[in-house]
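REQUEST ID: PR-0412
SUBMITTED BY: lab tech R.K.
PRIORITY: routine
TASK: structure prediction, single protein chain
INPUT:
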Amino acid sequence: MESSNRCSVIIIGAGISGISAAKVLAKNGVEDILILEASDSIGGRIKKQNFGNVTVELGAGWIAGVGGKQSNPVWELAVQSGLRTCFSDYSDARYNIYDRSGEIFPSGLAGDTYTKAVESAMQKLRTDRDILLSADVSDIPELSTIPETPIELAIDFILHDFEMAEVEPISTYVDFGEREFLVADERGYEYLLYKMAEEFLFTSEGKILDNRLKLNTVVRELQHSRDGVTVITEDGYVYEANYVILSVSIGVLQSHLISFNPNLPRWKMEAIEKCDVMVYTKIFLKFPKKFWPCGPGKEFFIYAHERRGYYTFWQHMENAYPGSNILVVTLTNGESKRVESQSDHETMREAMEVLKNMFGPDIPEASDILVPRWWNNRFQRGSYSNYPIYADSTMFENIKAPVGRIFFTGEHTSERFSGYVHGGYLAGIETGEGLLEEMKSEKDRETNSKSILEPLLALTLSQTEAVGGLQTCDIHRHLFHGNTKREAIL
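STATUS: complete
OUTPUT:
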């Protein structure tokens, strides 16, 4: 194994949490940091790719929570950086629901079904909560509606996989506003991270050239003690630090890619294992021409199938990139994992069959397809965290609580904004500030210990001088430089 010099802080993971934590440390004078990133670029689950001559976002794609009384910090970064975005209005999607014969469900039926689905979803969430809080379930009402028809299944999918995750109003929309903006910039969403990084890392022409960032560096083991943390990588390198900030996804923590010696305490592992991991897959399809409706209220459309979540939610990219002729269909969880395990050719065949059901058999064939694989990516193992309904403040506290000299951060450590980019950003800042406080406390403890030891040492020296007749300098040499005669022999 090859080793390197010890530094103050090692940050594992260069996603938005890791970068924002590093920025906080550097801004406060902690410059001997090292960032270890497993992939070949910073960003984590914020990742762009060129497809069909435009830039598409494989992971995080929206800035959610805009237009409220408080300003979303990620939106502020986007404005400062001049990032190009497009407003997304999902409200009309419910009126663009196609059945398997290509007919659009009447707006009245779609509206009524949506309203009933919302009421049923809220009732289910409250029922689940009541079951967890009460030992007597006899008084808890049964669900009034269980989705069965294709349109009910489609709307149920939209609600639970896109809009609803909590009984109470979602904190992001309450705090920052209900508007959402799609990132549509050739520089990508990740440009915000590079702008942050250039404030404390050496960059040139948009590339980070600072040797404190090491890409393609896969961490496999953390050996931790009272004195520090030893980080061991897959290729045999050993790094040492006073502290570590672990900024990897909840999926990676659950996958045990990184081992701990000694093991993490039970309370920590139980909290990590209880958190759900969502898989969210945006499949991009390129066509020689567009054949779908465009214009106001037509950006999103829904396919009603008897199998829940089967190529249900669609979006065209004409608002973001006019003339791109790209469609996006979003799958989640079970369907995502199924598609990840099959060939792109088979996925294209399935998607084309759905599109032909909606728009007729004469539509052109897709010329290209892009299928992200977040679940099978061992450096991510999913898209974002989703806390179960029974999660309480103790579970959140345990997930983000440090273990000795290892600090944990990421969107999964944000109690109010888990699952969002701004959640990851704010979590990194909070973790960086928490570590600064700990470093200051440690320095104060060392100073106090020194102030106590110095008088004792002086007293010892004076007593020894009186008894042995040695000069103070001789005693100092014996105490701190060892036996001079032995040193001379060696």
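NOTES: Residues 95 and 142 are 29 Å apart (CA to CA).
REVIEWED BY: pending
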